[in-house]
Amino acid sequence: MGDSSDEEYLHTEWVPYSERKEWADVTPLPQDDGPNPVVSIAYRPKFREVFDYMRAIIAKGEKSQRALELTTEALRLNPANYTVWQYRRDILRELKADLQDELDYLEEVIGQNAKNYQVWHHRRVIVEMMNCPKWELELTQNALDNDGNAKNYHAWQHRQWAIRTFNLYDDELDFVDRLICEDPRNNSAWNQRFFVVKHLGFTPEVIKRELAYAMNRIRVIKNNESPWNYLVGVLRQTESGQLNSHPEVVEFSKGLYNAGNRSPYLLAFLIDLYQEQALQQNDNESAEKVYAMCNDMASKHDVIRRKYWQYVATHLKSQLSKSSNPKQQQQ
Amino acid sequence: MSYHVVDMTDPSELQPVLHSKHAKNLLRFLHLLPARMSSHDNTRSTIVFFAVCGLDVLNSLHLISPQLRKDIIDWTYGGLVVPRENEKRRGGFMGCRAMLPQTEDAELLECMRQYQWGHLAMTYTSIAVLVTLGDDLSRLNRQSIVEGVAAVQHADGSFSASIDGSENDMRFVYCAATICHMLDCWDGVNKEAMFQFIMRSLRYDYGFSQELEGESHGGTTFCALAALELSGQLHRLDETTVERIKRWLVFRQMDGFQGRPNKPVDTCYSFWIGAALRILNGFELTDYAQNREYILSTQDELIGGFAKWPKSTPDPFHTYLGLCGLAFIGEPGLSAVMPSLNISMAAYVHLNQLHERWRANSSGLTHDLTQLKLSVGSSAEAATKTTSSSPLISAQ
Question: Using a CB-CB distance cutoff of 8 angstroms, which residues of chain B are in contact with residue A310?
Fold first, then answer.
């Protein structure tokens, strides 16, 4: 709930539109909020005036340079006004304006409002109009750098759109790798990695490479959900989609367990692995491992999810009894 | 079942929920908002929604005076956009009055119409407010609004917020589903394409992203699941998929809930994740006591309201969603919340009554129904007369 108007209102000599000669031909149009409005905002005089003139311009259908400048001012006061953004685009089209200027303007606006939906949408439409994605990777990289932890959802979404639309995949894996090195817990970066690798294709070689990549990251920080989710996600891309499809991953996870690691993410992985074996092979030994690990999770390693782990054990029991019943009937 | 254990804590040791402070806090927002909220000008309807529905969950709707109730309803209907036959299908509610000028000049008013669009999020929250206040929705044309919803659906199944000037993503898929469900009409909306868009946004970790291959997110996972439920398509998820989604959701609990892996917790996710789990019948698998403790750590004890984090400024959004999060764990003094529509169960019951009425009317049964009531009444009378001598259920 920022107040973008405060500083400039106090520190600059802003001339009201009503005192500007070049606006003398325009009659401002107040907002019609009805006879008994609720959630009324106590607009500052400047806000009120700018939007009174904005309404007058839209109602006249005027698409001129001064109208464009007026939208700049209105959008500085309220960058969430999607109708004014649309009107601005209509003006830009009408004036056949230089859209490169618009991109420069937007770079500044996005710098100040990096978590605003409307500015990113405007950016997307302008880039589409220009059919030129030259600056999008740099723009989103800056937004991610400025975010502090490189997780700004808007910036990632825009970046994915630009990459997908204009086929900009080439250097993305390096970019993602850099972010994961800087912060292995950056789940947004892991997601982006999946997005890029999926585009390149999950061939058997790529799968092996990505499994190794995830395992290397897990070795450094075991208790990190992101690479564990990535590991499972890649295993699901194999032909069988089974967690035991790659012996090196099975050995790796068992090795961590035998070395005494009890990260809930490791245990969750092993529970899923044994559960799959139990269901496929009706293997009692695997089922017993699931029950024991669920019990350990519930009582020691993941107590906040104790009810969940008890449920997982109960659920497996009922699935196994369902799958064994038809056999009994056949006998 | 054994996993369904109630968290046992002595109620007297618990930090209390400051019901009346929250009610007063929300009530204040219905009147005058400070200038610093000018950047929320376009979403005023959502503030009404958080305040009214929050008061409802607090069982405090009586604090809204009859005059204020009328003002809220009138103001809300004042944002209704009704397109003419020859105009773009832009029906729905606006969330503000920025595009409504005070003028008698017919030409100006006509020109302005092109920039008055219903907005799906504002339409959803406006209808929810009207239903919560017990309005019968008779002042809106359901067909015109649903045409507006259908008009903003894209070929990929997703929805924009409005006919122009808006991005399209899972948030508006959700809003589209709430509107069609609440108005009991899906004419022209492609549910299959909507389903395909939702499923294409299911990620490798089994959360849903806001759009296609974006990162899984708690808010959009709620939107996806609620949209599936409201459009009657939840059953299309197979059991394995449901279990994996539940896993992703349950793993979001740290003490309160986070929206994405490795992100800090935030009060609003007690609603988003909680409601998503409620939709999948998995909410009881979470730790109620820790959830409650976190939400209450963000309670402002001085002015009421909840914030996203402890010691942060409360706002209507986190206040409402915090209250809903508490309602899910059965907090005394709060009314039950219908997860996928995010309104109280009482409001939902009222909505269902409206549906029954509309269905009776639309199938031309009004007349027949009256007849039926009469005949039921007379046969009931007849039955009463004969019960003394006849068995209630006749032997076969």
Answer: 2-3
